[in-house]
Design brief:
About 15% of the residues lie in helices and about 30% in strands. It is α+β, with helices and mostly antiparallel strands.
Amino acid sequence: MATQSLLNFYDEILKRHPSEQTAPLSLKLVVMNPGTMGSKGGLVVDQLTAPDLPGKITAVYDAEDSSWHLHTSNVHRLHIDPAAANSWFRSVISIDDSHIKLLKEDPVSCQWLVSTDSHWSRDQRHGRQLGGLDAILSTRGRFLISTPIEAFSFGIQISRNLFQYFGADTEIVTPGRSLTSDGGNRISLLLGRPSQMPLDADHSFPIYVDKDKGLVVHNSYGRRTSYGFEDGLGAIFLRPNAGETLEVVIWGSDISGLRHAARLLPMLAGVGQPDFVIVGKECAWQGAAGVRGLGHFDSLWNITDRSVVLQRR
């Protein structure tokens, strides 16, 4: 790392002025998780149409009309970073054959007007909320762990694992006590019926627990699947929180189901996990074959049509 040739290389790269960079004639961007992917050539992908498939952008510069032509695949939302692409993109670009005129505050300096309207991000999945179950690891503060007394040992084990793998700080509380930390992602351990631990009482989320029907899942076609309070049934899934934070819910109809679900809490980032997993007691001897359902949430926190939700056995 400190050879003379390598030091010379560092000096050459670091001394380059940004104005020396020239725009490429073409570029290609492939994104699996927009939450962990930055800008390439000023192009930033905010959301994917199908979160379990890669998003692709191919940009080609047309010298005749001095414009860029962008072709996208599986990209739901994107934006152009003015700081990185101010000198590259002109007043008109083409995205999938649709011509878009970019507003400029000063045509001479090519400064773009920047919109501060972030209304779309209030109800949609974005930023650090993107990704599979391992997105819970992208926290800006300490982990907040809520657990009932009956499952307190699970909360202790999760806290110990987070500290062992990441040196992470955690706060553990039981129901009835408020969490004093803020800005961190939350891990909620839930056991049994909603009367014991309320879970989405207004049923606004596609996965919830009903006091009579048990675990209920709404798929993308509006079909409802309920599993009851079976022995060994468990689930782990993401839910949105305020301020671009996340909550991972680990629920079990009994201690056995909670144990199966808690084992799926990720301790390694970038391993391609789903957003939700529903496990049955069969997981004890069948492993992955005992899974009742798994899949992803789209940008509106609805279950995608490529997810798998098996009927009650």
